[in-house]
Structures are given as structure tokens and as C-alpha cells.
Amino acid sequence: MTSTQPRLKQPHLSHPQHHYRALSAILLVGAGLRFLNLGQKPLWLDEMLTVLFSLGRNSADIPRETWWPVTDMANLLSLNAAATCAQITQHVATDSNHPPLFFCALHQWLRWLPLDRLDLAWAVRSLPALIGVACIAAMYWLGRVTLSPRTGLAAALLMAVSPFAVYLSQEARHYTLPMLLITLSLAALVQMQQDLQRQHRRWPLWLAWVGLSLLGLYVHYFVALAIAAQGITLILWLLWHDWQEQQVSYAGWRWIGITFMGLALGYVPWLPTFWAHLNRPEASWLTIVDPTWGDRFMPLLQLVMGWILMVVALPVEHQPLPIILLSGVLMLLVFSVIVWRCWQPAIALRQSARRHPAIALLAGFTLCMVLEFLAIVYGLGKDLTLAPRYSFVYYPGCCLLLGALLTLPEPWKIQRRSLLWGIGLVGVISSLFVSYGLAFQKPYYPDRVAQTFYSNPDRSLAVLTVDQSFQDVALGLSFAVAIDRQAPRLPTSPTSIQLGFIHRPAGYRPVWRQLAELGGNVPRPANLWTVLTPNTNPSGLPLTLNLSTSTAEPAPPCQQVEDQRYRTGHLYQLYECLP
Prior knowledge:
The chain has 21 helices and seven strands. It is α/β, with parallel strands linked by helices. The protein has a seven-stranded mixed sheet, with helices on both faces. Helix 9 runs parallel beside helix 11. It is elongated.
């Protein structure tokens, strides 16, 4: 006897109601991960540059050639509400090598926030975090127009829990905004490809692509690489399409030409500044000097490590060796499983490229981006793989392709559904490590340096930053902010915390002479920490330094403490100044 009871239907994501509930849940999870612990991590060098520019400040606002108390940081880091976007553009063009649009947008955002009641780090990171949530929605749209709504959900989930995307969203830098613009421009590019196939032009769509690309160029120069990759891929696809159809798409080629001409014309006003920025020294740290065979191999390894960090990031920085080894093995294992489980679907997708031209287009874009990186590394001697964050320009392509592989039809549907949930779980755990500062730690470790500098609260503290560029000044300010945040938590406060900045055009001898004549006063006993440029030879440092005093009687020189010397790119040396 068979049962006549009706079977309960399980919710299916193809139903619009469940589909958009799933998308809402993904957005909520992504927002939670991005705003979790947002203001607790220290501001580092690059973020301090963002803070200064977005507050309407520039290098001229930093006191030089004198000692000044750390309490004056409150005035320096206050919002200059009278600053205009034109003034901020001038500051950015003069003191950095970046376009200005993000800093103008963040300045306006800070004007809307109650800064007197908010932590500064949270305030300046909140806009990139919010844009990071918008990237999830944009990734959903890209997946939807490329393949299917289910692909959109998978790609959005991957973006939401990616430790790499969470890391970028918690940086007070211009990474999430260009990533959003690139994602939207890729969605427009896919629809432009559809226009070329149908020989029907939607001019607002093509105009939108030009606008998104132009905005990206005024936010970050690396967007030019993404634009070049999109153009190359679209042109190669149209050549292949014309060859398949045995006819030339004259109208399509005309539209492509007009589109890129309009893009070039829109960027003409900024071209002189762009060329001037190409020769600035701020990016010299990317230059490969006298590479060995190992140095030539490292970019390839770093490139793959960047791909791994897009899906899993476990604690490896400043951890005990057993934890480093365990985390490294687990990260390689997770990445290997993903590659293994996606290999057959990838082959099937490549064989059916003619049925999925949009997937072929985005795969070509991603491959072209990787080749551009390698061409810059091995052709121009600039190692873009040194910093994983630069992968933001092609991360949307990687995210979309993985989402597509995980949502192809049978025969791998069940296996890949479990893989998607597994990647999601690993991503949430990895993103929690990022939010709590255990993965993707802030460069130069301002909190650790501040703790080292401020280890003796019974003495005055003087921090002298010797700078060759505005970046060195920002580094010293990041340490000062970290010291100021830690000072109230210590049981006793020092009688004084003084900051000093001296510009070093060449050698150090003029710096030490200037130190002896520096205005202001550092009460003794004091610890004098010197923050020196990366190319400093520690063996050439003087054993004693003369420090200016407010009394008529000369004070004994400050003595170098040899075992208190550290290097994290820059060199830090302690001198004791006794009465």
C-alpha cells in the first residue's frame, strides 16, 4: 500500500523569494565580516597618508625642525572642513603618486560623520568597508549577467567570505572602490559582447563602461591594467567571432574604436600629472635590483600565494614555528583540494567555450591580467607580486570564474555544492583571523613598535623620524598615533612624549648637527628613539648624540643602546639621555 501523503517541498534557490533571501544573507555576512573589529587595528604608513589627505592636510601641516608634544596630534588629525576637492587634488599630486578621486570622496564622507564621537581608524575605514559590501552585490550582478542567477549567488558568497576581500575592505586605502568599478565594468563588458553578437548597440551601456573606467583611472593607476586587459580580450574575441562567422563586424569595430577614443579623451587632463608620478621615488621599493636566480623565481611563487590568499588565510606572521608550518600546510591543502575538484569542470567549460562566450571573455581577461603582471615583473623590473593587495585589479575575474565552475550543470553538481559550502566555511574562519589581526597584519607593525618605544613609562620619550619623503613622515606619524592610543592604558604616563621630524637630503651628519639645535624641550631622563631610512647602515650610527636642552648648562650626550636596535624595513635605534 503506497502512502498518499504529500511530500514536503524543500526550499529551492531558483524561487525568487528564496533566491533574494540568500543574497540578503550573503550581504549581511559580508558586512559583518568587514565591519568586525574595524577600528581596533593600528593605522599604518599608507593608511596615515590616506588620513592626512582625506582630512584636507598635506606635508606643510607637519611641524618640522622642532620637538612637539604628541598631544598636538589631535589638532593635526582634525578635519579641515574648508578644504576643497581641488585643494586635496593638489596635495595628492604634490605629496604622493596617486590619483585624487578616492581622497576627495573620503573627505566628503568624513564631513558627514560625527568625528568627535568616532574613533579615527574606524571612521576612515568605514567607507572602504561599505564599498566592500557593495562589491558583493556587484559580483552577484556580474555572475548573473555572465552565466546565471545561481552563479551570481556563488560568486557573491565567495566575495563575501574571501579573506582577501575582507582585508582590502578593512584598509583605509583606495582598493575596494576600484575593485567595485572594475567589477561593474566587467558586467558592462559582458553585455557589450552580447551587443556585438546581436549586432545591436545599446549606447548607454557602452557609455557606462567608459564612465566606470574613467572613474577607476582617477581612483587608482592600476585600473589602467584592467582596462588594457578588457580591451585586448574584447578585441581578440571579436577577431575570433569574425573568423567564425566569415565576415567582418565593421560596426562593432567602429564602436570599440569610438569607445576607447572617448576614454582617452576623458583622461587627457590628468596625463601630465600621471607622467610626473611615474618618476616619483615612492614605488622604488618594487624595483628588482641585481636579481639572483632565486629572485627571478620568487614572483611566480608570490603570484600563486596571492591566489591562495583569495580563499584561505591562516596565521603565519609573527607566530611560533609549529603554527607557521601547520597553517602553511593547511592553506596548501585547501587550495589543492579546490584546484583538484574544479579541474574537470574547468576542462568541460573550456571545451564548451563557444556556448559560454561570456565565460571565455572573463577567463581571457583574467589570463591577460596575469600576463601583464608577469610582463611588468620580468620586463620592467617592478615586482607587483611583492604585495598581495595589488591583485585587486583581477580578483573579480578570479572570483567569477570560481563561482562559474561551482555552478555548472551535472554531473558534478552535488560534489561542487559541498565544495562551495566548504570554501564558505574556510573563508569565514580566515576572515575572522583577518578581522582580529592574526592574518594580513598591518605592515611595519605600528602597535608592536609603539609598545617597544613606550616600554619605560617612567622616562620621557622622544621619537625622531629622519625622512627622505612624505612616506617616511607618515610612518613616524603612524607610530605616534599608536603610542598615543597605548599611553592611556599604561599604569603611569611619562612626563613627556615628544615628536621630531628632520629631512635628510643626503648623509646623516647634517641631521645629527640639526638634532643638537632642535627647538623645544625633551625632559630628562629620556629615551630617544630614532626612526631612520631603510638604506641606513647601522655600523655608521654615532655612539652618542647631543640633544638640545632648555637649560644654560650643557647636558651629557645621549648614549647608544646597542642591543635596542630593530629593523622592519626602516631602522630603529635607541639612545638613553640621562640628566
